[in-house]
Amino acid sequence: xxxxxxxGEIRAQVRDLERIARxxxxxxxxxxxINRNLKRILASxxxxxxxxxxxxxxxxxx
Length: 62
Prior knowledge:
By secondary structure, the chain is mainly alpha-helical. Helix content is 74%, strand content 0%. The protein has one domain.
């Protein structure tokens, strides 16, 4: 059984991910490995945002 998410729901969840990752990143200066990984996570979130926008342009549920 598959669940279809609407683009608006995905956008909201990606915004939540970004908010959490930015919060953690701002507190990770004393932990270089965590800081580096959070930079990577933030880059991945940017890619998710682009993907969601492409999906919205196609007007198809994701």
